[in-house]
From TrEMBL, chain A:
Residues 6-237 form the ABC transporter domain. This is ABC transporter ATP-binding protein. Belongs to the ABC transporter superfamily. GO terms for molecular function: ATP binding. Pfam families: ABC_tran. PROSITE patterns: ABC_TRANSPORTER_2. The keyword Transport applies. It comes from Aminobacter carboxidus.
TrEMBL record, chain B:
GO terms for cellular component: plasma membrane. CDD domains: TM_PBP2. Keywords: Cell membrane, Membrane, Transmembrane, Transmembrane helix, Transport. Belongs to the binding-protein-dependent transport system permease family. GO terms for biological process: alkanesulfonate transmembrane transport. It is a multi-pass membrane protein. It comes from Aminobacter carboxidus. Gene3D superfamilies: MetI-like. It is found in: Cell membrane. Probably part of an ABC transporter complex. Probably responsible for the translocation of the substrate across the membrane. Residues 73-253 form the ABC transmembrane type-1 domain. This is ABC transporter permease.
Length: 259, 268
């Protein structure tokens, strides 16, 4: 038996009822190994966010099941950290208070919380802003704070929904490198949604390409690039080839002919 | 008055486009003095049968010295604050209940929406008949006025809490009983404070009107008495006092609001 961290087994999700209902996700089957970094790309309406919300336990399935460490998901859990595109920082709390939010819920004593938050705030390079309110941070800093907050509760898996989508190109590249750097040091399973094909290839061990109407799995493209990603990799011929392959399968999908 | 809270926060604005390099506060003073001069001019020229600034000022001093003004202010403020505090204290939990539980919303909302359409002053006749002419009917009407505006604002606040923030808390392990105090309440505070401000405004407007109808003291009562004796200066003093007190209360709440919601991102 293979050791899957996250498994989608025949997962379907339908929204609405009767005539107006639509199938957001159609029988998705996917196995993600422990410590693997997968990126998910696809046109809008392909169900990638639905799949992530189901894995996060924020949304139920209409059919099938999602397993984490072999156990069915029935709600959010601390072993799954989620990072949202809109950062979702609590605006009335400082960076440190945001990072400590999950630790407080766990009931950790103040000194312990402080030690952990110091570590993760440092890890994302926000030590000088620990007491700042989110409104004073740039987009990239907010997302770093959100990452630190998710890491602080020590999840074994990260679910990320277009986390760098709202950032400018330069900041985005910087954040990608930083994410890979943290990932290689503190290895976790990552399920990363993006609409940026370059980003998908650069970060991933495998790229999951999805298709829309109904949302479904289209293709899985392994990324056979050196484990350590850097500018050299980004500019290599191999990278360009995989990128083209992903691009082609995202933008030249044959429409599904339904019987 | 609640629509543009940010403009009041910039007293140092310069109107350089007009070539007037004056801070806003100085312009406010200029406008005030100009108004006063205009008032003086039209009354001095006997264009209108109204008391002039001097006459009103003298009356104000008189009423202040003999203690009547303080008594009236105290009576009105006591009513407005009692009714308002009771109204807001009930409105905030009810608003949260309506926002958080669909069942509570379905049960309460029709009543709130219906009573909102009835001007609180229209309830006065009924209140007097059923509660007598004591303090009770006045406080009740003020309570109603402030309750209705606060409850709607609180409820709006709760239902407009960003879903992502709630989800963010849930994925960090928070259950409903943690999410409510740690996320829903702080996130709705800006809405609640707007409601509280509107509530206080309508409470103040209501108290004066209620006193016009039935009271033995208060700023509204004083005006009503003055009307019987054609005592225009006293009416002016009361009106100006009502305006100043309303303004002061609104500014205090505005300051509290800015303090409590300093974490909000504001459009510049």
């Amino acid at each position: 038996m293979t050791h899957s961290k996250l498994s989608f087994r025949n997962v379907s999700r339908r929204f609405g009822e009767g005539e107006k209902s639509f199938l957001a996700l159609d029988r998705l089957n996917l196995e993600i190994a422990d410590g693997e970094f997968v990126t998910v790309v696809g046109p809008s309406g392909c169900g990638k966010s639905t799949a992530m919300n189901i894995a996060a336990g924020l949304m139920g399935v209409s059919d099938g099941e999602v397993l984490v460490d072999g156990k069915p998901v029935s709600g959010p859990g601390p072993e799954r950290g989620v990072i949202f595109q809109q950062y979702a920082l609590f605006p009335w709390l400082s960076v440190r208070q945001n990072v400590e939010f999950g630790l407080r819920i766990k009931g950790l004593p103040a000194a312990e919380r402080r030690r952990i938050s110091d570590h993760f705030i440092g890890l994302v390079g926000l030590s000088d802003f620990a007491d700042a309110l989110p409104k004073t941070l740039s987009g990239g800093m907010k997302q770093r704070c959100a990452i630190a907050r998710a890491y602080a509760v020590d999840p074994t898996m990260l679910l990320m929904d277009e986390p760098f989508g709202a950032l400018d190109a330069l900041t985005r590249v910087h954040m990608q490198d930083q994410l890979l750097d943290t990932w290689s040091r503190e290895r976790r399973t990552v399920f990363f949604i993006t609409h940026d094909v370059d980003e998908a290839v650069y970060l991933a061990n495998r790229v999951i390409v999805m298709a829309a109407r109904p949302g479904r799995l289209h293709k899985i493209i392994p990324v056979d690039l050196p484990a350590e990603r850097n500018e050299e990799v980004r500019l290599s011929k191999e990278f360009a080839e995989i990128r083209n392959q992903v691009w082609h399968s995202v933008y030249h999908q044959k429409p599904l002919i339904e019987a | 008055m609640s629509a543009a809270p940010s403009t009041a926060g910039a007293p140092g604005t310069r109107f350089s486009r007009l070539g007037l390099h004056l801070p806003g506060l100085a312009l406010n003073a200029v406008a005030f003095l100009a108004g006063l001069a205009f008032w003086w001019a039209i009354t001095a020229a006997k264009l209108v049968v109204l008391p002039g600034p001097h006459e009103v000022f003298v009356r104000a001093i008189e009423l202040a010295v003999n203690g009547q003004l303080a008594l009236d202010i105290f009576s009105s403020l006591k009513r407005v604050l009692t009714g308002f505090v009771l109204g807001a204290a009930l409105a905030i939990p009810v608003g949260f209940l309506m926002g958080w539980y669909k069942i509570a919303r379905a049960l309460i909302e029709p009543y709130v929406q219906f009573f909102r359409m009835i001007p609180p002053l229209a309830v006065i006749p009924l209140a007097i008949v059923t509660m007598g002419i004591d303090e009770a009917p006045k406080i009740f009407v003020i309570f109603l006025a402030s309750f209705l505006s606060c409850v709607v604002a609180t409820y709006q606040g709760v239902i407009s809490v960003d879903r992502t923030l709630i989800n963010a808390a849930r994925v960090l392990g928070a259950r409903d009983r943690v999410i409510f105090p740690r996320v829903v309440i702080p996130a709705s505070i800006p809405f609640i404070l707007v409601g509280v401000r509107i509530g206080l405004g309508s409470a103040w407007a209501t108290v004066v009107a209620a006193e016009l109808i039935a009271a033995q003291s208060g700023l509204g009562f004083r005006m009503q008495q003055a009307q019987l004796y054609y005592d225009l200066p006293t009416i002016f003093v009361s009106l100006i006092t009502i305006g100043i007190l309303g303004l002061v209360m609104d500014r205090l709440l505005q300051a509290a609001e800015r303090r409590l919601t300093s974490w909000q991102e504001r459009a510049q």
